Amino acid sequence: MAPRTTQILEAAARLIARRGVRGLRVEELAAEANVSTGLIYYHFKDRTGILRHTLEFINARAERYTTARDADAAPLTPREELEEILLLELQDTPEVRENSSAWGELRASAVFDEVLREDLARATLVWVQEVAALIGQVRPTAPAPALTGAAERLTALLEGLSMRWLSGGLRLDHARDLMRDALRAELALLSGGVDQ
Question: Which end of the chain, N or C, is surrounded by fewer C-beta atoms within 10 Å?
Fold first, then answer.
């Protein structure tokens, strides 16, 4: 991605996280990114293009911070990898706070915006499929529909826990404990009641 495009998308994610999708104005985005409004329209065509690309940007950024590992670190078991990827969405860093807030704002706006709703549905489906594949590595004999159901529940819970934590309704350590408990319960359900 070109540096200017990245600069604009970082600014868009910041503004959406702070003001919501409805509060996103191209003029303010240009000021935040320190570029002209013409450059924004050149790269993204219109407001819908800005929102679509920002959604893709925050998804790619989340993938980076949930999967990046030290090359010298010991390899994780599939169970450890699954837990780590879920818990890395609940960490107190500016990047995660901003990403999670922007995702929540985009999801809330999708209720009223059919194009955004379709884009979010696709992004959510990809996320669910990735988590289901990880669960399948932990429970390889579980049927595909059960893996998908577990992934849907875990990702939905993660979104809810994230919003409660970000809005002050839960302490971060408690949100992470609840996520671990849910993961244990889902894995136990997939193995006939015993989390191995």
Answer: C
Pairwise CA distance, residues 34 & 7, whole Å: 9
Name 34's Cβ contacts closer than 8 Å, sequence gap at least 6. Answer: 7
- CA nearest neighbour of 8 among 69, 16, 126, 103: 16
CB 189 within 8 A of CB 145: no
Q: Give the mean pLDDT of 125-149.
A: 97
Enumerate helices (H) and strands (E) in the chain, giving the number of each.
9, 0
pLDDT interval class at 69 (50, 70, 90): confident
Measured in whole angstroms, how far is the alpha carbon of residue 36 from the centre of its chain?
Answer: 29
Confirm if 119 and 54 have CB atoms less than 8 A apart: no
Residues 6+ apart with CB under 8 A from 136: 142, 144, 147
In this predicted structure, the answer to whether residue 195 has a pLDDT above a threshold of 70 is no
Average of per-residue pLDDT values in the chain: 94
- Token readout for 94 is 């500016």
